[in-house]
C-alpha cells in the first residue's frame, strides 16, 4: 500500500466533512473499479487504497485514532489492513444513485445487495387529464371519470399461478432473487436471470392473467372539482392507481385539470374579463345595462354619460373564488361601442342634424356636404 495519507489518497483536506469524504471516494470507486479496468493492476491498487482510506475516515472513532497516531492507530497499512477483506458494503455510497453498479456487473442493485422482489410491491401511479369548463372551475362540480388500470387477478389472488398450484422457489437463487458472485476482493449480488429477481418461478401460470398476477380493468371514479381550481392543478386520489405486483398496494391517481376556453369570459388569476357591446346612444346618454356573470345570472351595471369605447368597469366579487380560501376575485367589464352599419332615413336625418349642431362637416343622404357655416 502507498505511504500517502488517507486524506491525500481521497484528495480531501483534513477538515473534510463526511459528505465530502463520501463524494471523493465515490468518484474514485467508479474510476478505478476492477471490473471497469480488468487486467489493470495499477487501477486495482488505487481502488484498494481508496477503499482502505474510506473505511477509516468514514468512521469517527477510526478517523480520530488515525489523526492522532497515523496508520498504526487503526492497524492498517500492513498485510492485515483494510484492502482485501474490509469494506464491502457500498450501499451507503451508491444507494442514492440507482443501479450504478449495474454498469459494472450487468444488472442488480449494487454491491451492497439488491432488494428482493418476491414480496408485495406498490403499484404504479396513474395520471388522468380532465377538461373542465370555466363555470365548473368557478363553481365546483363532481365529475365521473373512467380509467383503465391494472388490478389484482381475482382467479389467482395475484400469485400468477393457476388454481390449485403455487409458485415454486427458484432453484438457481434459492428464493433470494439474487445470484452472488465474487468480484475481485469483494462479493457482488446480481439479479437472478431465471426468476428475474422474484425468487419464485411459475410452472403452471394462471390462464386469466397469464402468470402476471394482474389484469387490466376499467374503473369509474368520482372526482370532486373544488371551486377556484386552476388549469394544470393536480388532484391526488390516494389508492386509485394500479395494483402492485404480488398483492402489493395500489398506487395513487393524479387528475390534472385543463380549463377550457370560454366564449364570453377570459380568466386572469381570480378575475374575469368580459367584453360588452353597448350602443352609441347608451355611450352618449348613459343608462343601465344587464351584464352576464359566470354563475349564469345577470346583474345591472350603470353606464355613465359620455362613456368611451374600451372603458373598464369593475363588478366587485363576481370573479373566481379563491381556492381553499375566502372571497372571490372581480369581474372587469370592457365596454365596446357598437356603431350601427345601417340607418333608417329618420335616424340619418337626426344624426346629420346632430353633426350640424356640433359644427361638423358630414355627407348627406345624397352625397351633399352639410356644414354649419
TrEMBL record:
Zinc finger (CR-type): 140-218
Cofactor: how bound: Binds 2 Zn(2+) ions per monomer.
Main location, first listed in the record: cytoplasm
J domain residues: 5-70
Organism whose genome encodes this protein: Leptospira sarikeiensis
Binding positions (Zn(2+) 2): 170, 173, 192, 195
Gene: dnaJ
Compartments it resides in: Cytoplasm
Pfam families: DnaJ (PF00226), DnaJ_C (PF01556), DnaJ_CXXCXGXG (PF00684)
GO molecular function list: ATP binding; heat shock protein binding; unfolded protein binding; zinc ion binding
Gene Ontology CC entries for this record: cytoplasm
Key words, A-Z: Chaperone, Cytoplasm, DNA replication, Metal-binding, Repeat, Stress response, Zinc, Zinc-finger
Stretches assigned to the CR-type domain: 140-218
Positions annotated as CXXCXGXG motif repeat: 153-160, 170-177, 192-199, 206-213
Subunit structure: Homodimer.
Record's comment describing the protein's domains: The J domain is necessary and sufficient to stimulate DnaK ATPase activity. Zinc center 1 plays an important role in the autonomous, DnaK-independent chaperone activity of DnaJ. Zinc center 2 is essential for interaction with DnaK and for DnaJ activity.
Its biological purpose: Participates actively in the response to hyperosmotic and heat shock by preventing the aggregation of stress-denatured proteins and by disaggregating proteins, also in an autonomous, DnaK-independent fashion. Unfolded proteins bind initially to DnaJ; upon interaction with the DnaJ-bound protein, DnaK hydrolyzes its bound ATP, resulting in the formation of a stable complex. GrpE releases ADP from DnaK; ATP binding to DnaK triggers the release of the substrate protein, thus completing the reaction cycle.
Cofactor field: Zn(2+)
Binding site for Zn(2+) 1: 153, 156, 206, 209
The name this protein goes by in its record: Chaperone protein DnaJ
UniProt family annotation: Belongs to the DnaJ family.
GO BP annotations listed: DNA replication; protein refolding; response to heat
Amino acid at each position: 500500500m502507498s505511504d500517502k495519507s488517507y486524506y491525500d489518497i481521497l484528495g480531501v483536506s483534513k477538515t473534510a466533512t463526511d459528505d465530502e469524504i463520501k463524494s471523493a471516494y465515490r468518484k474514485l470507486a467508479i474510476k478505478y473499479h476492477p471490473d471497469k479496468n480488468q487486467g489493470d493492476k495499477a487501477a486495482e491498487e488505487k481502488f484498494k487504497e481508496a477503499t482502505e482510506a474510506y473505511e477509516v475516515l468514514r468512521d469517527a472513532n477510526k478517523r480520530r485514532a488515525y489523526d492522532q497516531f497515523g496508520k498504526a492507530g487503526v492497524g492498517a497499512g500492513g498485510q492485515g489492513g483494510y484492502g482485501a477483506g474490509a469494506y464491502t458494503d457500498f450501499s451507503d455510497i451508491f444507494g442514492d444513485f440507482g443501479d450504478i453498479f449495474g454498469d459494472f456487473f450487468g444488472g442488480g442493485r449494487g454491491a451492497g445487495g439488491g432488494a428482493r422482489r418476491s414480496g408485495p410491491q406498490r403499484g404504479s401511479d396513474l395520471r388522468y387529464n380532465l377538461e373542465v369548463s370555466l363555470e365548473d372551475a368557478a363553481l365546483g362540480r363532481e365529475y365521473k371519470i373512467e380509467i383503465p388500470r391494472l388490478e389484482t387477478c381475482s382467479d389467482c389472488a395475484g400469485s400468477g399461478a393457476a388454481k390449485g398450484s403455487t409458485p415454486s422457489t427458484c432453484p438457481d437463487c434459492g428464493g433470494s432473487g439474487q445470484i452472488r458472485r465474487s468480484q475481485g476482493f469483494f462479493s457482488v449480488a446480481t439479479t437472478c436471470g431465471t426468476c428475474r429477481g422474484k425468487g419464485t418461478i411459475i410452472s403452471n401460470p394462471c390462464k386469466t392473467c397469464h402468470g402476471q398476477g394482474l389484469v387490466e380493468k376499467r374503473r369509474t371514479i368520482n372526482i370532486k372539482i373544488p371551486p377556484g381550481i386552476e388549469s394544470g392543478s393536480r388532484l391526488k386520489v390516494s389508492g386509485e392507481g394500479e395494483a402492485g405486483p404480488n398483492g402489493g398496494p395500489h398506487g395513487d391517481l393524479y387528475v390534472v385539470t385543463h380549463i377550457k376556453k370560454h366564449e364570453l369570459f377570459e380568466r386572469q388569476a381570480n378575475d374575469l374579463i368580459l367584453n360588452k357591446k353597448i350602443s352609441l346612444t347608451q355611450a352618449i346618454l348613459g343608462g343601465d345595462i344587464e351584464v352576464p356573470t359566470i354563475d349564469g345570472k345577470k346583474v345591472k351595471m350603470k353606464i355613465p354619460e359620455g362613456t368611451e369605447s374600451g372603458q373598464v368597469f369593475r363588478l366587485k366579487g363576481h370573479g373566481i373564488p379563491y381556492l381553499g380560501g375566502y372571497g372571490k376575485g372581480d369581474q372587469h367589464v370592457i365596454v365596446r361601442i357598437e356603431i350601427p352599419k345601417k340607418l333608417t332615413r329618420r335616424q340619418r336625418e337626426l344624426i346629420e342634424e346632430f353633426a350640424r349642431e356640433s359644427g361638423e362637416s358630414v355627407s348627406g343622404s345624397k352625397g351633399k356636404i352639410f356644414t354649419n357655416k
